[in-house]
Design goal:
The protein is mainly α and 159 residues long. Helix content is 47%, strand content 0%. It is built from 5 helices and no strands. Helix 1 packs across helix 2 and helix 1 packs across helix 5.
């Protein structure tokens, strides 16, 4: 049963348990190694926090993360880690275990949000926002081809 924990502590526990299960699920995972600049568990936690943060971009997220949590992470380290094939493999293993943990929790509490739609029983349901593909084709870009933040676009007034 879930305890009354702050969201950040719940995320921390969930990440650690999912990572432990992912490491135990494979005999010699090729993705398991130490990265002193950004530990895998911190990379996962940052990814989850990025998803639930109200920020305009990855850079804005890093600035907000530094202000709120006092964790200074160089832009280059963070953005290079997002392109790592090793970390992608690690996230796939982690995601499977995270999914199992969520399923166990929901099952133990009798929660099934799709129960009212029996026609979906034979399908695996996944959701994504498409951000992993690319920025929208109409997104204004600066001279470095980086998507511009709203306050950087000439003539656009911020609310």
């Amino acid at each position: 049963m879930l305890k009354d924990l702050p969201l950040s502590e719940h995320i921390h526990q969930h990440c650690n348990e999912s990572m432990e299960r992912a490491l135990l699920a494979e005999r010699h995972p090729l993705w398991a190694r130490s990265c002193p600049e950004l530990k895998d568990i911190d990379f996962i936690r940052l990814g989850l926090l990025r998803c639930i943060s109200v920020v305009d971009s990855g850079r804005h997220f890093l600035q907000t993360n530094e202000q709120i949590y006092g964790q200074l992470l160089p832009h280059s380290t963070y953005f290079k880690s997002l392109k790592s094939h090793r970390r992608t493999s690690m996230l796939e293993a982690f995601e499977q275990q995270s999914y199992h943990l969520h399923s166990e929790t929901l099952l133990s509490q009798g929660i099934d949000y799709l129960k009212a739609f029996p026609e979906l029983d034979e399908y695996t349901i996944e959701a994504a926002d498409g951000h992993f593909i690319d920025h929208a084709c109409h997104t204004e870009k600066n001279s470095n081809r980086r998507a511009m933040l709203p306050h950087e676009i000439p003539g656009l007034l911020s609310p």
